[in-house]
Amino acid sequence: MKFANLIKVSAEKDGGHNVEYLMRQIDAYTFEFGINRFGAAPVFSKRPMTLWERTYQRKIGEGYADRTPLLTEDTGPKYAEIKDVSVRALWEDLTAVARKVLDDTYSDRIETFTAAVAAQARTLITTLHSAGTVESFNDTLLSLFAVMPRKMQDVSTYLAADRSDFPGIIERENDLLDVIEGQIRIRETHPEPEQTILDSLGLSIRPCTDAENESIRKHLREKSRAVFRRGFRVKNKSTEERFWNFVEDGGYEKEDIRFLYHGSKNENMVGLLTEGPSINPDAVRTAAMFGSAMIYTADSSDKSLGYTSLRHSFWAHGTADKAYMLVYKVVYNNQIDIYKWEKYLSTMCAEKMRGHDALFCHKGKMLRNNEIVLPYEAQLTVQYLLELAV
Q1: What is the reported pLDDT for 298?
Q2: Which of 49, 90, 236, 331 is most exposed, with the fewest beta carbons within 10 Å of its own?
Q3: pTM for this structure?
Q4: Which residues contact 170 (CB under 8 A, 6 or more apart)?
Q5: Residue ranges per structural domain of the chain
Q6: CB of 362 within 8 A of CB of 348?
Q7: CB neighbours of 220 closer than 8 A, spacing ≥ 6?
């Protein structure tokens, strides 16, 4: 049966267009068509199949783009149930938060997003970096919205008004695509019989013992201790192996291994647990003092608390009653000590570290808390997931 999914996204003074046009063959003689705006349910009408091509070409002539080759309907693999009730509830919570962010943002259901859609979106986001004018930037952004349709009443509010808007918009699009790619990876796993989703992803998660929770609590700063509820011991088979290979290849000793904190929004947790923190040289992070191509950790839990989704979090402006923070196992022994911020630090990366394996950015006039910034993904692996609540 024939099917076509067409979309038109444009920005005009009246709010612009953000319209989806669907065509679906019913039988050998008839097809139905429907139009909807920013995710509303379409109302379908019927036409004879002899008018299919004429209808399709008219819509293309009106400026609609055909998304049909990018779409699929995939409910994903079937997994065995996670046996531990608290771990099962945790995983359901983390995935539900990620899905809600996507459902609130995009017109399409997450099941229709494919690796091809994500790859095309990633290419367009990369193109945004090289945009020379506001017009070319917004043209690329409109193309991105056509690939991954949004729930937008006024398209113009999602576009750049001037060049100062570029970094924030690129960061917004990168963050959303990171969440989508995490969901696609989960859907594209191929579990063995009786495997849970965690088994398939190479993850081991269990509730912390009373002794472990007490030890975690003792190391937390005052604000974090007040909202700490419980911990989960996490082991990612892939990042754990990568970490120990890095330790061995670098000749590190036991005393070079530390445990540091990392805060992030709830919707990012599935990706961080399954893939670990990633370094994307093309990413833009508006609050990245020491460059986007680095991984940020802290020795103060209260510092990382500010980046979580917890209500009133300082940097993330969180609104959630429950949030999460990670404890990473980290290795370094040849740090550069930074006491004063200088402009060259805003573009730091592994290549510029010249053999050093960390920036230790000391608290003082520059920062309220220490920040330990790492140039290599292999330098850390997840140890604990901390559940926080107000």
Answers
A1: 97
A2: 49
A3: 0.78
A4: 125, 128, 129, 284
A5: 3-69, 85-187, 202-389
A6: no
A7: 228, 301
